[in-house]
Write a structure and sequence with these properties.
seven-stranded mixed sheet; two-stranded antiparallel sheet; 11 helices; 20% strand; binds S-adenosylmethionine; EC 2.1.1.182; S-adenosyl-L-methionine
């Protein structure tokens, strides 16, 4: 990032807008990358698409050209004013406010959710969106590569953790391609990646008490080097591991998503 003479960081301006760090503003400028993202989304007329964080419209413009109508959710007042100036209301419906609090069930379904997400809220936003999975057709996002790696990681891999299990329980996901910092203004310090997410059919989910499963997963990954015997002590005695057919000396990082569902269902059935 550019430094001023005094050594202070000079605010980055893009298209006359000062990028706000607190809103995670890194604007896409690389037209090839923008084209690749829109190709990956493959928007069609008549689809219901919502873009989170349209900013100065790097993705909004080509999306609109392809599908003719769009919903957007933006928090920055200056950018909201520009969106209203730039697009006719019958083309772009601007929802003003925080995507973390936005009620996505107020939009038509099946919904396609897209965006170059503000990285500072990406994890809570993914969990918020997971609550609307039954109304969503698919989601295509740009995120920090490190977060995408955690989302798609498999058991035993270093990146495998709570985010992997809780999202893989709900979605089939694929990391599509990486995007270097040079594709943005201002450039973020980290590499980004595009991730595609498609909700799994409701009957595939299976878990009878997802909230309980969330607590178990959090405990199992809270102390990664501890065994299940230790991390799941609040719920399971040694004989429960026998009943589950699981090794109490195993670590959570080696369990598949289905294993966590199995444990949660076992505890749920026992309690019920
Ligand atoms: N889509 C634009 C692009 O690709 O150039 C901007 C992407 S920029 C990484 C993130 C955008 O999300 C900004 O427009 C920012 O103002 C907006 N934003 C940040 N936090 C938000 C929130 N909580 N809810 C909705 N929009 C948010």
């Amino acid at each position: 990032m550019a430094q001023g003479h005094s050594g202070h960081r000079t605010p980055q301006r893009h298209q006359g807008h000062t990028a706000r760090k607190r809103f995670g503003q890194n604007f896409l400028v690389d037209q090839d990358i923008i084209g690749q993202i829109v190709t990956a989304i493959s928007p069609k007329p008549g689809e219901f698409i919502v873009e989170i964080g349209p900013g100065l419209g790097a993705l909004t413009v080509p999306l609109l050209a392809a599908c003719g109508k769009l919903h957007v959710v933006e928090i920055d007042r200056d950018l909201i004013a520009r969106l209203h100036q730039t697009y006719a209301p019958e083309q772009v419906t601007v929802h003003e406010g925080d995507a973390l609090e936005f009620d996505f069930s107020s939009l038509p379904a099946p919904l396609r959710v897209v965006g170059n997400l503000p990285y500072n809220i990406s994890t809570p936003l993914l969990f918020h969106l997971a609550d609307y999975a039954d109304r969503v057709r698919d989601m295509t996002f740009m995120l920090q590569k490190e977060v995408v790696d955690r989302m798609v990681a498999k058991p035993g891999e270093e990146a495998y953790g709570r985010l992997s299990v809780m999202l893989q329980y709900r979605f089939a996901m694929a990391s599509l391609f990486d995007v270097p910092g040079t594709a943005f203004n201002p450039p973020p310090k980290v590499t980004s990646a595009i991730v595609y997410m498609r909700p799994l059919p409701a009957e595939a989910l299976g878990c009878k008490n997802p909230e309980l499963m969330g607590k178990i997963v959090t405990a199992a990954f809270g102390q990664r080097r501890k065994t299940l015997r230790n991390t799941l002590r609040p719920w399971l005695e040694l004989e429960d591991f026998d009943a589950l057919g699981m090794n109490p000396q195993e670590r959570g990082e080696r369990l598949a998503v289905a294993d966590f569902v199995h444990i949660a269902d076992y505890i749920h059935a026992r309690a019920g």
